[in-house]
Amino acid sequence: MTELAESPTTDRPRVDPYSASRLAITREFEVPDIHIPADETSSPWVPWGDNAAIRHLAFDVRNNKFTNILWVKGGGHLGVHRHSGAVRGFCLEGTWRYLEYDWVATPGGYVHENPGVRHTLVCDNPSGMKTLFWMEGTLEFYDDAGELDEMMDVFWFIEHYVTYCRANAIPVNPALFV
Ligand SMILES: [Fe+2]
Predict the structure, then answer these.
(1) What per-residue string of b and e applies to 94-131 under the rule 16 or more CB within 10 Å gives b?
(2) Ligand 1 centre from 114 Cα, in Å?
(3) Percent over 90 (pLDDT), the chain
(4) What would the mean pLDDT of 11-28 be, rounded to a whole number?
(5) Ligand 1: distance of its center to the CA of 94 in Å?
(6) How far apart are the C-alpha atoms of 120 and 131, rounded to whole Å?
């Protein structure tokens, strides 16, 4: 059995990622963690059409990224759409699926959506569904003729949230703006 050669890096000083200078710089420039409590004042359920609502959790305007929970309250179609960025979804309650696939998202299920793919969200479940989505880029909806019908980016989601807050005397929560 051949013995392993001694690592040529053994005699070199080891990198210390927690050096005093690195820690000081980190403390100076780090951004504190954020917690959004579960109550409606921290972030309300904002109606989206007659059968759905969105609970906004984060708006990142520097990177056009946003996080929210989509609540579809009963059976319904969300329409054909595509994303210009990746989307991660985690099903919290109920069930839903995309017409283009044979899987069904159930509580605990994870979905990764890739940019450019057109898909059609369907919730057959009469009890609806809730899913946490981490989204980036734009969300584009298409009509039956394949024409662009609506394009939603981080500013669409901010407008959705802020307009509702102002109409209902709910303070805009600065913690949502990461
Ligand atoms: Fe999607």
Answers:
(1) bbbbbeeeeeebeeeeebebeeeeebebbbebeebbbb
(2) 9
(3) 83
(4) 85
(5) 17
(6) 15
Question: What confidence tier does 1 reach under pLDDT thresholds 50, 70, 90?
Answer: low
- Give distance in angstroms: CA of 172 to centre of ligand 1: 27
d(CA 24, ligand 1 centre) in Å: 41
Helices (H) and strands (E) in the chain, counts: 2, 12
Tokens of 106: 């159930």
CA of 23 to the centre of ligand 1 (A): 40
Tell me the CA–centroid distance for residue 31 and ligand 1, in Å.
30
Note the pLDDT tens digit of each residue in 81-90.
999 999 999 9
Span from the CA of 62 to the centroid of ligand 1 (angstroms) = 22
Rounded to two decimals, the pTM is 0.88
Q: How far is the CA of 161 from the centre of ligand 1 (A)?
A: 20
Distance 173 CA to ligand 1 centre (A): 26
Length of the chain: 178
- pLDDT tens figures, 48-106: 999 999 999 999 999 999 999 999 999 888 889 999 999 999 999 999 999 999 999 99
Q: Residue 66 in contact with residue 152, Cβ under 8 Å? A: no
